[in-house]
């Protein structure tokens, strides 16, 4: 708020008050109250409301320690109440599992390899990983299978 706007507000309030006292004949107390009200309206009319509600908020730079990581987003996609895993973590674990199975020579899209995949991962794990409603236990089993299929374990 600039000084000129505040002075203009006082001038409008005084003019309204004086007009009410001398032109209309209202008691001075009421004229002052109506003048103050007119001044408030003038002040409110001059307010500039930014389009962005955070326009006047302080700019706090988000450093790497405050930024969400892929691991934290995947952890938040696990629902502890229902035990279901979100699509984010399921998709990521499924991609790693598919990659590890390709290293062994198994294609997840080939129906002929389905029995070998089930024998390697566990009965029905790949099916549960590709259908909605994947549970936390399925993710844990898939992570164990990924560690069993890791290249470091193949060399040992």
The number of helices is 8
Taking pLDDT < 50 over at least 5 consecutive residues as the criterion, the unreliable ranges are none
β-strand amount: under 5%
What's the total number of strands? 0
Reading the helices and strands in chain order gives HHHHHHHH
Helix content: 55-70%
Helices and strands, with pairings:
Blueprint: H1 3-24, H2 28-46, H3 70-76, H4 87-104, H5 114-121, H6 125-130, H7 136-148, H8 151-155
Helix pairs in contact: 1-2, 4-7
Q: Which key features would you list for this structure?
A:
156 residues; mainly alpha; 63% helix; rod-shaped
Describe it.
The protein is 63% helix and 0% strand. The mean pLDDT is 83. The protein has helices at 3-24, 28-46, 70-76, 87-104, 114-121, 125-130, 136-148, 151-155. The longest helix is centred in the first third of the chain and has 22 residues, at 3-24. The protein is built from eight helices and no strands. The chain is an all-alpha fold. Helix 1 (3-24) packs antiparallel against helix 2 (28-46) and helix 4 (87-104) packs parallel to helix 7.
Please sum up the structure shown.
This protein is an all-alpha fold.
